[in-house]
Amino acid sequence: MKKILTMAFLTAAVMGAILTVTSCSKDNNNESEAVAVVNPQKVFMGGLPKSVAGMTIQTNEKGQIISMKSADKNIIFKYTEAATRSMAPSPDVIMTVTGRDINKVVCNLYLNKDGYVRKCDKIDYYYEDRPETNHMYNFSYDRDGHLVEATIKGGEEVWSWIYENGDITRVERTDHGKKDDEPWKLYYTSAGYSSPIANKGYLMLFNENIPADFNELSLAYFAGMLGTSTKHLPLRVVESGHESSFSWTLNESGYPTSLKFINHSGRTENYSFVW
User: Which CATH code for domain 36-274?
Assistant: First the structure.
């Protein structure tokens, strides 16, 4: 009788273990198959701009950006539905950029669970629709969704954005293992602004007023895929003693309608925003 009870106990234990393993495996599969959803409203909590730097923004029924168009540039975002994906790893979003000075650039975007780009395979086409160069980007974010690091070309180039109290105060770059002698330093007050300006439009202009090396990839921010914005609008950036300044014009609601950028050599660029 004792042997029968022991065998019954062992059988139950084994069955329980099998069920546990099966259950855990199922849970892990569900986690790994979780689909990232792009939601620009997580980034632009006050609403998306209607146009940025002359580019008109068009959205789909889900509120996702499907195109950004200007007279000389066209950006198309194609979102891959989970049901249409193959078993092989495929991009969650394909961003294609064409224009007057750009033959074609394709960014294959792979997203993390928050809908932000974790990896980008960027392909430049220069002649007869043939790929000429390929750049791989890997991105890291902090717990607040801020982009804090980008690794380019397998580590040949690394960019780091250092935040303090919700604002980028320093940008560092490492090239082939050698860190730049001095970082970029960002400031949120100036002679004309004794207090920081709240970033009510949640703007981040990578390459322009946030030092970066993204080129066309920077436009993914406006689709809500490059993390969250700084708390305030940057007014000055200093690199190796050279200062560039940013002058913002705001509407009655405090949203930026224009930006005037003056670099250390006096070159001026203007950007407009419509809400």
Answer: 2.40.160.190
